[in-house]
Specification:
The structure is a homohexamer of 143-residue chains.
Chain A (H helix, E strand, L loop, with lengths): L18 H14 L6 H6 L3 H15 L12 H15 L2 H13 L4 H23 L12
């Protein structure tokens, strides 16, 4: 990425946000207890409808209580899944963001290392199972 | 996969296992409390050294107490990471195997749906962050 | 996948659907002009909230007029993107489903071949650009 | 990438290009109406035969008229597929390059947002279909 | 894939092949010393220009002597790369095809296990390097 | 990645390494004939058990003689597989590291170009085989 650019499109600053964008920005900061809007959302705001769609969904899944939903998974487990998916996809922005979230939730680097060990292990065994085209073991019927 | 084949190489049956392969097979069944050796391991056994390497590592990470190690993550969290990685990679054998493990640990399909919701969400936002080449937000220095 | 299973969890049949699930099923059939609910949705229904979230989002993006939104992309272009993403990810269910959608929209196999040629080309050049770690060309600043 | 490097191998400058490389460089600039040769091609030129192979194929698929072929897809649709594939693969060079191409063809950022919305959506549903190992719906025979 | 289908489009049988398709089919069988045309090519033939493009490129890279080119890599090394890429991408058709090619070239299953060990190892370390966003070590300038 | 960071966690310097970490660091430098410990290992050291697990495995597979094992693949072939996997996954750190290793083993950029040509080719055909959901050709039974 050439210096001075944060994305392939010009992000919408908080000062320039109006209407739907301003409302989503405010909800992001309130829900996530942030003082500024992260780059990701400022870039999505180049299409306000898409910004709203992504935020509504992320809020429902990652902040269920704020969205008026109940959830069985706890926030730490959800962030662990987020970092596992992001590491598997090799998404730089996402790995940084979700690692920061895990640290903020109190996870130390040694425990993070355990998460990564599991991530590394299954990226390996996934490749091996595909490499040999191993068929699933006979499983009991779902019911 | 043509009918009657379970992989691209002929798996080593339990009856045919000797030496290092037989020892690993026995340890897999004991550690995982299984009555037969899953296809994955029977295929890896076509190279006994590799079988041993993969099993030793998986045992250390997924069955730390059996390997004489302590761990901060619990077994359910480890299996959740396994299924998140496997779903992201689209590995059929692995998704089947780790979903079965989650069910065996007592997870109901509604909670599994929450896991999958998080997996689906971040596969989407990962693609979007990459799609726009969003740069990481300024983060506090690690320490 | 063992014979007789369509997924790792038991799908919710249309006959068994009630409440939120029944409402989403009805909307899927009406919006997509289908006589039965595809497997994908019947599996998601094992977590009704997740079913609703995914459907709401897909409807907004792929059927904007039904969701009361306007869109600049036409339905054929959207399905072309869907098949390009699905082929790149190697998702069997998705490739089948979106190829069927393209055919239903009138695309012949020769034109589909052109779509696939572009998909194949860029999966190759993407790997090459990553393989050599090519830096982006200097671009004018976005504004 | 350490500063001052644009790739893992030394690119071939236009000044240093001779023979097959010079001929391909000239054709790239003419066909794509560019004033300089992008980094990608200068890196491939470290193996002139490979440079020629990749260019010949890209020209045939992305610039069919220049290659003396006819095509049913229009240039905008081809670039939309290119960016969808590149975003799905998370290829930085490619996302930058094809987003620039879409902008040059006149696409505004709001429409780009619609493209990305579809890309994001199907990266999510692909993961979900794989996550649950959903089998294809019964389809009519092709013919 | 519903029974009785080999792809999402109807493949072109050898009996039905004419013109460009027939010529490519003949060259595939001659170059690869096969008695029938594999499914992959019969599916690509639904767009004859694309069939020709893919075959011309594969022939140049994988059968350089038949294409009148010289090469430094030997056929076994090329097939090893093919299976490594295919396993990493989890492509079922490709893993089957390239494993068969390796076996035909004389590789025994134990050596194949070594190939797979390396493939599995680096799918793991790739994920870990991405998981921690490790920056490249300072490298000497290329020259 | 914000300037001045080499990863999402603080790497363990050689000066700060003690116990298990110091022992692994020493073995890495001895086995790989390096004067300093690469970033990758210094980051993994934030969880000493994981560092040891990854190194033990990599040593066994990539430096079999040092691990007291024999191997049929030669070091160059193993590094070729490493770069093929890393390029396919788009892992920046890994592509840099394994390209450097190939160059150190004496591979010139033209031969590297042949490796990349094969990598690029099969990333394309993998996508095409998945894009059309091509079924494996009928293969003789394994034995």
């Amino acid at each position: 990425m050439p210096a001075g650019r944060i994305a392939t499109v010009p992000p919408v600053s908080e000062a320039a946000a109006t209407g739907k964008v301003a409302a989503v920005y405010a909800d992001i900061k309130k829900t996530k207890k942030l003082e500024s809007v992260p780059n990701f959302w400022r870039v999505l705001a180049t299409n306000p409808d898409h910004l709203e769609l992504v935020w509504t969904r992320l809020k429902a899944i990652m902040h269920p209580e704020a969205a008026g939903r109940s959830a069985k998974l706890d926030p730490l487990t959800r962030e662990i899944i987020a970092v596992a998916v992001s590491a598997t996809n090799g998404c730089a922005y996402c790995v940084n963001s979700h690692t920061a979230a895990l640290r903020k939730l109190g996870m130390d680097v040694e425990t993070l290392g355990e998460v990564m060990a599991v991530v590394g292990l299954f990226n390996s065994t996934n490749a091996l199972a595909d490499a040999y085209q191993v068929e699933p073991d006979v499983l009991p019927p779902v019911d």
